[in-house]
What we know:
Bound molecules: 6-aminohexanamide
Number of helices: 10
Distance between the termini: 31 Å
Strand content: 15-25%
Radius of gyration: 19 Å
Mean pLDDT: 96
Helix content: 10-25%
Oligomer: single chain
Order of helices and strands: EHEHEHEEHEEEHHEEEHEEHEEEHEHE
Strand order of the largest sheet: 3-2-1-18
Amino acid sequence: MNNQTESNMSTPLASVPRQDGFFMPAEFAPHDKCWMLWPEREDTWRLQAGPAQKAFANVAKAINRFEPVAVCASSRQLEKARSLLPADIHIIEMESDDAWMRDVGPTFIVNRQGEIRGIDWEFNAWGGLDGGLYYPWERDNLVASGVLESENLKRYKAPLILEGGSIHVDGEGTLLTTEECLLNQNRNPDLSKADIETLLQEHLGVEKIIWLGRGCYEDETDGHVDNLCCFSKPGEVILTWTDDPSDPQYEISQNAYDTLRNAVDARGRSFVIHKLQQPGPLYMTEEESRGLKSDDTSLPREGGERLAGSYVNFYLANGGVVVPQFNDPRDLNALETLGRIFPDRQVVGVQSREILLGGGNIHCITQQQPKGIV
Ligand code: KQY
């Protein structure tokens, strides 16, 4: 059980990870396990979160084929989570404000001696009172330390508001992010671009930061990179794509493509860029919106709104790729394309529209804990 409060949190380390020899490995490096949270918020998840809970359970089961999964659930949801998850998935009692482990969980870092530690970023619900998605978010802000405590891992507290979905690394010194998110005035208004680069370098052990412009069209996170573009291996990236010039996503993806084509990574390599055709466009239906509880502490979700659907929001498990599926004509193309990009991994699709309705997808609800490197 984990009942994290600010008063019982362990003291963070006084140093910074790079100075201690720690860096963030890529998602495609081997994992020890995958962390998730259990959805229950009725203004994010329709119909008392029932359909989302089934979708989260299906994601957990798909990942569990490749690596162990730990799911954190509130005391009110322990029984429900247990009834929908197989016995070999570990359930841990933990409070949170919603279920986005990528964004509220720790970023795990490793050193060359096989030790693992975690970074506890500051979290403000994707923008605080200036465009954030709900209020309050204190319980979310305690999840990273709760996870690290339950694993008995040392913690660095980073002086930066940052969600895990806003960064991707190649494990060889390069980081991908978007200006729309990390330079947004609703995250770290007092820090310059250079200050943010320095904090990323000191905490993640990266040398080179590739700044893409905007994230996916209508992405409510202010353009998280994990919905737009990710590494498939050092020197190779996958970018969400559309060939329809009348779609606002066209210009965004084109722009990211041009930036990537003209960039080199930390080791001086030019990028191989794989284009992954987006689904849809997809929209929330009136019926889906009616299933949500409305509340003045969170963003209203209306029928007819465009959803930021993207197949790039997949999770790389040990030997597997767990990919969003939307019952869309492009689903199969996404599975085949990813199968060609990752010939040594098994590609598994999971229906995830219910997760998308909450504003994210499979990558956003998961967080890999790497194996120590020795
Ligand atoms: O992109 C992600 N990493 C998270 C999406 C969060 C959406 C909140 N409603």
